[in-house]
What we know:
Layout: H1 7-35, H2 51-62, H3 72-79, H4 83-96, E1 101-105, E2 108-112, H5 126-140, H6 152-165, H7 190-199, E3 203-208, E4 215-228, E5 231-238, E6 243-248, E7 258-259, H8 271-276, E8 289-296, H9 297-305, E9 316-319, E10 323-330, H10 334-343, E11 347-351, H11 353-368
Antiparallel strand pairs: 1-2, 3-4, 3-7, 4-5, 5-6, 8-10, 8-11, 9-10
Amino acid sequence: MYAQSTTNRFFDRINSQADASSQQDAFVKRKILLILSKNKPFSTMPIVKNREDRLHTINSRLNRWSNRPATTKELARLCDVAQSTIKQDIAYLKDVYEAPIEYSRRPKGYWYTRPFNLAASVTLTDKDLTALHAAVATLNQFKHVSLFTDLRGTVDKIDKAVRFRTSPADDYGQYILFESVPYVKGSEWVEVFLAAIHARQVVQFDHQRFDTEVRKSHRLFPYAIKEHRNRWYVVGWQIDYEKVRVFGLDRVVDGSVHAIDDSFDVPAFDADIYFRQALGVAAYDNPPEDVVLAFTRQQGLHFRAQPFYPFQEEDVLADTPTELRVRLSIIINKELVFELARLGPEVKVLSPQRLIDDLNQFHHQAYQQYCL
């Protein structure tokens, strides 16, 4: 039985979770940024020109001599660079590494306001840096999603740190081209429903399907959030229908989402197992069926390389120079029909008959659009 006392408590939980998430992000950020500095002990004060080494030299000096402030002139001499460069390095330490550096006007110089060191680190290989470039590029695709708003600053700082460790010519991210992830209406509800899932709360909201002007109110115990084709969905137990339902978040009516005080018994749910048996995000009541498909040789190679549905080698019924025949255990739904129709003459459904009929009807209706 799951309930919370008031709507305000529901949104208080969301805010609390956001605060906790922010703290966690800050912790993760510090850990990642520490990784991006090398552990180089300084028994002496060498003259250095490389920026990474300069940062360690500055750090070592600020930790020496009982935190006596170090002047810009002194740090410039130790690093053999211009004083303007030292000022940029100090700003970088404060911005990227969050170093607790303050400037004292009397005596003039920089000093640490609390213990701080860059030494706790590991060395990153070229392979590690390449992976980080790709990771940053991937994360940047989702900056518009409200759930990741608090991570924007973290991603930007990681990006700066990675670029600092490599030359512009080594920026592999510029050679990785992703499909664009556009802003989608409804993404603003992702965080709200995730908070409800975490709090095990029932949520009431109005929903309007694309094919009707009628708004319907629903009470849902949310199980999971699912992304499909750049759109967000919430999966949960519909209290009034007593069944699993899926709702597109882009069709949730603004201002209608709130928690309710009632208590309900709801069944357990495994989203991974549930959606593993089908394509798409629709709710399913029918069980999987054996579907036999015959691909052309070329499309068969594509299917092996990137199957639209997982299969095992024992599911391959024939693999010849002209055909790949595969048996899939899958729920038959519109998404499967759309996927097979997309492949056109490159695939043929051999069974079951009802899927053949569905595909024939789909192609016939498309053909009728162009009949004169």
